[in-house]
Design a protein that fits this description.
The complex is a heterodimer.
Chain A lengths: L3 H32 L6 H19 L3 H27 L6 H24 L16 E3 L2 E3 L1 H23 L1 H11 L11 H24 L9 H15 L4 H21 L5 H15 L9
Antiparallel strand pairs in A: 1-2
Helix pairs in contact in A: 1-5, 1-7, 1-8, 1-9, 2-3, 2-4, 2-7, 2-8, 3-7, 5-6, 5-7, 6-7, 8-9, 9-10
Chain B lengths: L2 H21 L4 E8 L6 H19 L21 E8 L4 H13 L5 E4 L3 H14 L3 E3 L15 E3 L4 H17 L6 E7 L2 H17 L2 E8 L7 H10 L3 E5 L2 H13 L8 E2 L7 H7 L7 E4 L10 H14 L5 H20 L4 H9 L3 E2 L9 E2 L13 E6 L2 E6 L15
Parallel strand pairs in B: 1-2, 1-3, 3-4, 4-5, 6-7, 6-8, 9-10
Antiparallel strand pairs in B: 10-13, 11-12, 13-14
The chains are: A mainly alpha, B alpha/beta.
Chain lengths: 293, 414
Amino acid sequence: MLTAETIVQSLVSGLLTGLIYALIAVGLSLIFGLMDVVNFAHGEFLMIAMYATFGLVLWLAIDPILAAPLVAALLFAFGAVVYVVIVRYAMRATANRGMVQIFATFGLAIVMRGLAQLLFTPDYRSIPHSWTEGNNLSAAGIYLPMPQLVGAVISILAFIGLYFLINRTDFGRALEATREDAGAVALVGIDKNRVFTLGWGLGASLVGLAGAVMATFFYIYPDVGASFALIAYVTVALGGFGSVFGALAAGIIVGLIEATTALLFPPALKSVGIYAMYLAVVLFRPRGLFGSI
Amino acid sequence: MNRRDLLTAGTAALAFGIRPVFAQSPKEIVIGALFPMTGASGQTGVDAQHAVNTAVDVINSPHELDLPLGKGVGLPGLGGAKVKIVYADHQSDPQKGRAEAERLITREKVVALIGTYQSAVAVTVSQTAERYGVPFMSADNSSPSLHRQGLKFFFRAAAHDEMFSTAMFDFFETMRKKGHKIETLALFHEDTIFGTDSANAQTKLAAERGYKIVADIKYRANSPSLSAEVQKLKAANADVLMPSSYTTDSILLVKTMSELGYKPKAIVAQDAGFAEQSFYNAVGDKIPGSITRASFSLDLAAKRASVGKVNAMFKARSNKDLNDLTSREFMALVVLADAIDRAKSTDGEKIRVTLAATSIPGENTIMPWKQIKFDASGQNNDADPVLLQLVNGKLITIFPSAAATAEPIWPMNL
């Protein structure tokens, strides 16, 4: 059943999904690049963002896409607080620092999931209506689902914004400098803690955007982050730990590989393609496509 | 805190830890219930808890219900002892299920187990129960391989997926006779024992009865995306789409179908996700006319007073109507408690013997079943399933004709 139509549709779906994977992953990559901390609660950040979107839609009766900036702002605050209250202390550990950081964010993930179970119940939520729904574009038998299309556009805009933020602003330069040498920046008057706090906020706000986008087409429940977090880790490893634009390229590659594997083989094997590629990267180019370490 | 305080506190804590064992009064019969209370299927477990608690209420408190133990208080065979449930969360994980079953049997001293929603977990739980000689009542598992494990302590009052699938194919036969064209089928099933067994049963029936399976899509449960899968279903465009999916994947399936412009001619689902209120809340408006198999129908309340009363009791707890799953969970505890009552004992082997001798006529249940009678493998073969169709946001019984309250609408999309 390999017709031109199914091939094009697969590539289009893969590209749209890939851009959203990239948006989910970039926050993780940003935080890692900045301070060598892997946020194991990344999937739970996504979950919180989806619930926040759901809550805002119910409470303010606005469209989830309009809620996206608000969710990003909320998540910014949340990320900053997580750094100040938890990660900052985890980084002070004198022995086994890597382990302490892993368990600090991993523990946070479990706490967040448990609280979500308690407060939101394990029921499946879903945003009933949004202007993106049903407004699908189709031409010559190829369907462009509006929710994913809007998500992909938001993802591209976010990456453009991120590019300017990192390359054209003082904050971006401070970010770059801190990641180069966190000790030395203190000598030129940059407060390392402040940069880290803003970095966590920025990383979380990006996953917040992703959550708002996801909420338009995905169901929401306390464990929703798990399967996306796994893909985010693979994406970050493929793109190169810490490389923001590596995450963009890797997200698209993961989306396309997933779609084409499912086209050529039984769909049950579709994640095999992703992990086979992941394995190849780990073996032949362990620093990832664009990684510097 | 000095060392003496520590010793005192420690001893006190130890004493408290041990106390419940001594304090366990013989006036209480403890039964273990294993359900997924957290994780992807957490809501199912929470609803199951309400259903089981409703059954406990029916058994322990005085009511006027035409059910076993539906009148009077407690278990008369054991001097009016009350039933107490200890819940365990197996998190949809077969290995956690095994560990929790063991804990319930050895530490909580339960006399029997019920559960477990996922068939994959029922495998490990039923084998553990067998090893300890404790009866396991499968409440809401539907894989046929469960009662073919050759276990003595396994019982299931409800139907399994071969019975359910047979009902679907009988229904196709009826529709064919009415002049509808049903020739091709598309199977869509998740990759654990539930989806696999269901697809095997459907493949076998399709071959026997002359239907062509034009797509057989097996997918990973809780997939982040189903675009590729739906594209294959759309390309196949079968006369009937037959999903066997849990709630998360069912929601994503319907959302993705609508995004990719696939309107199936008909959906006949193997329950699970398609039995859940949260599924219909999320995407029900996209699939009017979809059909699911079930073992319960609220329409029965018109004929049998107990159905409406039990439903009201359940609704007071859960704010939901009884569905296919919760009705089976309710019934499972009633049947189990009835056997313990007749055994007049908490001994596993004695309960097994009375369970095997169970004979409850359909009128004394809340189900559309002929009766409850277990065969040598512990399966009740008289648990006749029904098919329900989503019409104007409500599930209406359409098959078999004896139980139907409306004519089926076919096809759902031209």
